[in-house]
Write a structure and sequence with these properties.
- This protein is α+β, with helices and mostly antiparallel strands.
- The chain is rod-shaped.
- Among the domains are: 184 residues, Neurotransmitter-gated ion-channel ligand-binding domain (Acetylcholine Binding Protein, Chain: A, Distorted Sandwich); 116 residues, Neurotransmitter-gated ion-channel transmembrane domain (Methane Monooxygenase Hydroxylase, Chain G, domain 1).
- The strands form two sheets. Strands 1, 2, 3, 5, 6, 7, 9 and 10 form an eight-stranded mixed beta sheet that branches. The chain has a four-stranded antiparallel beta sheet with strand order 4-8-12-11, with no helix packed on it.
- The protein contains six helices and twelve strands.
- GO terms for molecular function: chloride channel activity; extracellular ligand-gated monoatomic ion channel activity; GABA-A receptor activity.
Length: 463
């Protein structure tokens, strides 16, 4: 009986342990099923996309453009400018950092899958056809490769491709410097297909003319210019190989004049004013007026040379050149005016010297005559009256004889005209004419050039 009860107890115990183990097994089995299925789903997606890409590239020839022999390949482009500048006046070029986007459709890359858009690695760009875009006025272009090539490639299920690159471009900027430093320029960026004419590949702007080229906020890196805005357009050129479309984006710049006012204009104006100070000095102050004239002429020569150092060696005169030339003319005229005044001053000194010598001779003769007359009258005054002459008549005779020399003594010879510390009539006129002419010139000059505002049609201001 005891043995039977023990055996029953063991059986119940084993059955209980079996049930517990089954419940634990079932529990852990259900908990691991979703994880396994998730991994399987992920592996399935990767496998699907791998098979899709392998299938798309199987038999794909990247040497042939999309739609060859059937249609024209259309490439849509737009530009996002991250930084603009600097601009070199001497080299007539500018530097720009952009995200250059191109979009086109390649039916050979259509696919069906769980996703409508595939983000692809930039390595795939070398295995498919891409537009042969180049920059017509680019001097040097750099494609950034740190830490990996800065390229983006997106493929949609209908075969549309988005290809973006980050580029730094140094491009030509033709400048007309007649109005320098109040000038404005439109620096172009031109690009298009290198080998495909319009009959095979055509370029268009992705968005409207106001949003196809966008400059980032605070993207300007310019010290001497204001970025007024940008405009876009297209050009067509014909060559022996066909007609090509050129996409153009113009960046409109207006020069800042503050630097040149401080560096050139104010020194020139002060030099001209300094040269006119000599008109207020005595014409006999030859050393002082000579220093004023020569120093101001040399200063203007130095300013004219330094002003040209920041410009290319153009064959025409700029607005600053005209201003410096007029200031130089005023300074040189002041020196010539002093030479003229000094010449006539020397002549007057010589003439006055001759007159002074003649006057001295006449005065000496008059003094000799007066001396003789005074001696005669004095002798007459000392004569003793005759015995038969009344005493009352003696004073009258003496007074009559002595009255003549008193009058002659009071008569003074005419004094020579003073010539020292005199003011020349030329100096008097120059004090008025020179400032009035220089002020009129400045009024006309600044009114003419500052009112020349550039007219920019359909310009999009930088954000």
């Amino acid at each position: 009986m005891d043995n039977g009860m023990v055996s029953d107890f063991i059986m119940i115990k084993n059955f209980f342990l079996f049930c517990v183990s089954m419940s634990l097994a079932s529990h852990f089995g259900f908990s691991q099923t979703p994880t396994a299925s998730g991994k399987e789903d992920t592996n399935d997606n990767i496998t699907i996309f791998t098979r899709i890409l392998d299938g798309l590239l199987d038999g794909y020839d990247n040497r042939l453009r999309p739609g060859l022999g059937e249609r024209i390949t259309q490439v849509e482009t737009d530009i996002y400018v991250t930084s603009f500048g600097p601009v070199s006046d001497t080299e007539m070029e500018y530097t720009i950092d952009v995200f250059f986007r191109q979009t086109w459709k390649d039916e050979r890359l259509r696919f069906k899958g769980p996703m409508q858009r595939l983000p692809l690695n930039n390595l795939l760009a070398s295995k498919i056809w891409t537009p042969d875009t180049f920059f017509h006025n680019g001097k040097k272009s750099i494609a950034h490769n740190m830490t990996t090539p800065n390229k983006l490639l997106r493929l949609e299920d209908d075969g549309t491709l988005l290809y973006t690159m980050r580029l730094t471009i140094s491009a030509e900027c033709p400048m007309q410097l007649e109005d320098f430093p109040m000038d404005a320029h439109a620096c172009p960026l031109k690009f298009g297909s290198y080998a495909y004419p319009n009959s095979e590949v055509i370029y268009v702007w992705t968005n409207s003319t106001t949003t196809s080229v966008v400059v980032a906020e605070e993207g300007s890196r310019l010290n001497q210019y204001h970025l007024m805005g940008q405009t876009v357009g297209t050009e067509n050129i014909s060559t022996s190989t066909g007609e090509y479309t050129i996409m153009t984006a113009h960046f409109h710049l207006k020069r800042k004049i503050g630097y040149f006012v401080i560096q050139t204009y104010l020194p020139c104006i002060m030099t001209v004013i300094l040269s006119q100070v000599s008109f207020w000095l005595n014409r006999e102050s030859v050393p002082a007026r000579t220093v004023f004239g020569v120093t101001t002429v040399l200063t203007m020569t130095t300013l004219s040379i330094s002003a040209r150092n920041s410009l290319p060696k153009v064959a025409y005169a700029t607005a600053m050149d005209w201003f410096i030339a007029v200031c130089y003319a005023f300074v040189f005229s002041a020196l010539i005016e002093f030479a003229t005044v000094n010449y006539f001053t020397k002549r007057s000194w010589a003439w006055d010297g001759k007159k002074a010598q003649e006057a001295a001779k006449i005065k000496k003769k008059e003094r000799n005559l007066l001396g003789n007359k005074s001696t005669n009258t004095y002798t007459t005054g000392k004569m003793t009256p005759a015995p038969n002459m009344p005493k009352d008549s003696t004073p009258s005779v003496i007074s009559n004889t002595t009255s003549a020399p008193v009058k002659s003594a009071e008569e003074k010879p005419p004094e020579s005209k003073k010539t020292y510390n005199s003011i020349s009539k030329i100096d008097k006129m120059s004090r008025i004419i020179f400032p009035v002419l220089f002020g009129t010139f400045n009024l006309v000059y600044w009114a003419t050039y500052l009112n020349r505002e550039p007219v920019i049609k359909d310009a999009n201001s930088p954000k």
